[in-house]
Design brief:
This protein has 20 helices and ten strands. The chain is α/β, with parallel strands linked by helices. The protein has two domains: 11-316, ABC transporter type 1, transmembrane domain (ABC transporter transmembrane region fold); 336-421 and 488-571, Rossmann fold, CATH 3.40.50.300. The longest helix is centred in the middle third of the chain and has 53 residues, at 217-269. This is Thiol reductant ABC exporter subunit CydC.
C-alpha cells in the first residue's frame, strides 16, 4: 500500500497553486541577501582601495554601486516580505476554508474535544503560514545566494572559497539538520501541550457554573496550571535549543572567518593575493553567514510545525460518515419510510439500531420513545444525514436519502437536535441562519408561532442579545428559538430530538404545548424518553436496544403491559392507581 506523504510535504503542497508567487518571493529574498553581501564587499574594496590614494574617478563606480546595492537591498527585502506573506496568507485562507468545510460535516466535531479542536483550527492551521514564510523561503534563497558568494570567494582565492563553502555547509546544512532532529520530539510535545492547555481552559470556562456548584473549580484550575507548567517547560527547552543553534552558527562563522583570514594573510605573504583582494575575501566571508543565519532557528521549529501539521490533517482526514451512493429510481410514495435500519459505531460494536421499521405519512406526528442508549439519537443522526445506515433503506418521498446531498435532505428534514446551538449574537441573526433573506415580519411571525414574541418584545425585540450559548435566555426560550429556526426552513418533516431535556416539568409542558401547536398539520417525529403529552400524537414507537418493542396510540399502549405503561406510570400521577400495573 502506498504510504501517504508526511505532514510537511502535504503542507507545502497546499501552496502549489501559488508556486509562482513563492518562486518570485524566493528570487526577491535571494536578491536582498546578495545585495547585502555585495554591499559589504564593495564597501571593503572601496575602503581598501581608498587607502592607496587613487584618483577619485577610480572610486566613482564603487560609490555608485554602494548606493545602488543599499537601495536594492531595501526594495528587494520589502518585495520579498510582501510577495511571500501575501502568498502565504492566501494559502492560509484556503486552508481555513478547507478546515471549516470539513468541520461543517460534523464528524470531526464529535471526535475531538472542544478546546483541542480550537487549537487545531487556530494555532495548528497557522503553522502552515510559518512553514511557508520561515521554513521554505529562507533555505531556497540561501541556496541561490550561497552558491554565488562561494563562486566570488573562489575567484579571489581558491582555498578561501573552499573553506567558505565548508563553513556555509556546516552552518547552513549540518547545524539545521541537527537542530531539526533535536527539535522533533520537543515540537511534538509542544503541540500536544498547547492543545492540552486549550482544552483545560475551555473546559474550565464552559463548565464554570457546574464546577463551582459541585466544588470542583479548584481541581479544574489545578489542571489548567499543570497544563500551563507543561507548556512552559516545553517552551523553555525549545528556547534552549534555539540558543544552541544560534551559538553553533556563530562559532562556525567565527572559525571560518579566522581560517579565511589566515589563508588570506598567507597568500599575501606568498604574493598570490594583494591587500585589497584580502579585504574583499575576509569581508565576503563575514557577510556570507548572514545568508544561513535564519536556518537553524527555522529548522528547530520544524518539529513543532510537523506536529501541528499532523494534528491539522487529523481533522482534514477524518473519514466521512456520510457518502453519496449511486442514484436509484424513486418510488411513487410520499412521507418517510424506513425499512430494516441497522447502524453501529464500529465493526465490533453492538447495533445501535437493529432492524428498525418506521412509516411517517404526510401530516402524521409520531413519537419515538425509549430509555437512554436505545438508539433514538442515532435515528436522528440518520435522518439529519449526520450518519449513513449500515444496512436498510431510508426513503423520503420515495427517494433514498443516501443518494442525495446532505444539504438537500436537510432542506426537507429539519428540526431541533438534542443540544441545539445558540450563537452569541442577536435573536435576528440566530434566526437568519436558517433563512438569510427572511424579513423581520417573517421572523416575528415564526416567533409568534412558538410563543416567544411576547417575551422578546418586552426586551430589545429581534436585537436582543442571547449571550454565549444563549446564556441570557431561559432553557425554554432557547428551545423555542431553536424550534423557530427549524420552522423557518419550512421543511416537509420536523425531527425533534429530546426538545425538553433538562427542563423542569412546568417549562417542559409549556414547551411541548408550543411545539405541538406550532407543528399542527405537519409531519413530525418527536424523539424523547418522556411520556408527557404523548396522548396528543398519532402514534408512539417504543425502541429498546435498537429494536421496536411496542407501537400504537397512547390509549393502546397504556392498556397493555410493557415498557410504555411502566414509563407512563412512573412519570404520571397514576402511579398509585390500583387498577394499573406495569406487569
Amino acid at each position: 500500500m502506498r504510504r501517504p506523504h508526511g505532514p510537511l510535504r502535504r503542507m507545502i503542497a497546499l501552496a502549489r497553486p501559488r508556486g509562482a508567487r513563492f518562486a518570485l518571493g524566493v528570487l526577491a529574498g535571494a536578491t536582498a541577501t546578495a545585495a547585502g553581501v555585495g554591499l559589504l564587499v564593495v564597501a571593503a574594496w572601496l575602503i581598501a582601495t581608498a587607502a592607496t590614494h587613487p584618483p577619485i574617478t577610480a572610486l566613482s563606480v564603487a560609490v555608485v554601486a554602494t548606493r545602488a546595492l543599499g537601495v536594492t537591498r531595501g526594495v528587494a527585502r520589502y518585495l520579498e516580505r510582501l510577495i511571500t506573506h501575501d502568498a502565504a496568507l492566501r494559502t492560509l485562507s484556503d486552508v481555513r476554508v478547507r478546515v471549516y468545510e470539513r468541520l461543517a460535516r460534523t464528524e470531526p466535531i464529535h471526535r475531538f474535544r472542544t478546546g483541542d479542536l480550537v487549537t487545531r483550527l487556530v494555532s495548528d492551521t497557522d503553522s502552515t503560514q510559518d512553514l511557508l514564510v520561515r521554513g521554505l523561503t529562507p533555505p531556497l534563497a540561501a541556496l541561490i545566494t550561497g552558491a554565488g558568494v562561494v563562486t566570488v570567494a573562489t575567484a579571489v582565492l581558491v582555498p578561501g572559497g573552499a573553506l567558505l563553502a565548508a563553513g556555509l555547509l556546516l552552518g547552513g546544512v549540518a547545524v539545521p539538520l541537527i537542530a531539526a532532529a533535536a527539535g522533533r520530539e520537543p515540537g511534538r510535545r509542544r503541540a500536544a501541550a498547547r492543545g492540552a492547555l486549550s482544552t483545560a481552559l475551555v473546559d474550565a470556562l464552559h463548565g464554570a457554573p457546574d464546577l463551582v456548584a459541585y466544588g470542583a473549580m479548584p481541581a479544574a484550575i489545578a489542571r489548567v496550571e499543570e497544563a500551563d507548567a507543561d507548556l512552559t517547560a516545553v517552551e523553555r527547552r525549545d528556547a534552549g535549543l534555539l540558543g544552541l543553534g544560534a551559538g553553533a552558527s556563530a562559532l562556525i562563522a567565527g572559525l571560518t572567518l579566522w581560517g579565511t583570514l589566515l589563508l588570506g594573510v598567507t597568500a599575501v605573504e606568498n604574493g598570490a593575493l594583494g591587500p585589497v583582494p584580502l579585504a574583499v575575501l575576509v569581508l565576503t566571508a563575514l557577510a556570507a553567514f548572514e545568508i544561513v543565519a535564519p536556518l537553524p532557528a527555522a529548522a528547530a521549529r520544524l518539529g513543532a510545525v510537523r506536529a501541528a501539521g499532523a494534528r491539522l490533517f487529523d481533522v482534514l482526514d477524518t473519514p466521512h460518515a456520510v457518502r453519496l451512493r449511486p442514484a436509484r429510481p424513486a418510488l411513487p410514495e410520499n412521507g418517510l419510510r424506513i425499512r430494516d435500519l441497522r447502524v453501529r459505531y464500529g465493526p465490533d460494536e453492538p447495533w445501535a439500531l437493529d432492524g428498525l421499521d418506521l412509516d411517517v405519512p404526510p401530516g402524521r406526528r409520531i413519537a419515538v420513545l425509549g430509555p437512554s442508549g436505545s438508539g433514538k439519537s442515532t435515528l436522528a443522526d440518520v435522518l439529519f444525514r449526520f450518519r449513513d445506515p449500515d444496512h436498510g433503506t431510508v426513503l423520503l418521498d420515495g427517494v433514498d436519502v443516501t443518494t442525495q446531498d446532505p444539504d438537500v435532505v436537510r432542506a426537507g428534514v429539519s428540526g431541533v437536535p438534542q443540544d441545539p446551538h445558540v450563537f452569541a449574537s442577536t435573536v435576528r441573526e440566530n434566526l437568519r441562519l436558517a433563512r438569510p433573506g427572511a424579513s423581520d415580519e417573517e421572523l416575528w411571525d415564526v416567533l409568534e408561532r412558538v410563543r416567544l414574541a411576547a417575551d422578546l418584545r418586552a426586551t430589545d425585540g429581534l436585537d436582543t442579545e442571547v449571550g454565549a450559548h444563549g446564556a441570557r435566555l431561559s432553557g425554554g426560550m432557547r428551545q423555542r428559538l431553536a424550534l423557530a429556526r427549524a420552522l423557518l426552513v419550512d421543511p416537509g418533516m420536523l425531527v425533534l430530538d429530546e426538545p425538553t431535556t433538562h427542563l423542569d416539568p412546568d417549562t417542559r409542558d409549556a414547551v411541548l404545548d408550543d411545539l405541538l401547536a406550532a407543528t399542527e398539520g405537519r409531519s413530525m417525529i418527536l424523539i424523547t424518553h418522556d411520556t408527557a403529552r404523548l396522548d396528543r400524537l398519532d402514534e408512539i414507537i417504543v425502541v429498546v436496544r435498537g429494536r421496536v418493542v411496542q407501537r400504537g396510540t397512547h390509549d393502546q399502549l397504556i392498556s397493555a403491559p410493557g415498557w410504555y405503561r411502566c414509563g407512563w406510570l412512573s412519570q404520571s400521577a397514576h402511579s398509585d392507581d390500583p387498577t394499573l400495573s406495569c406487569r
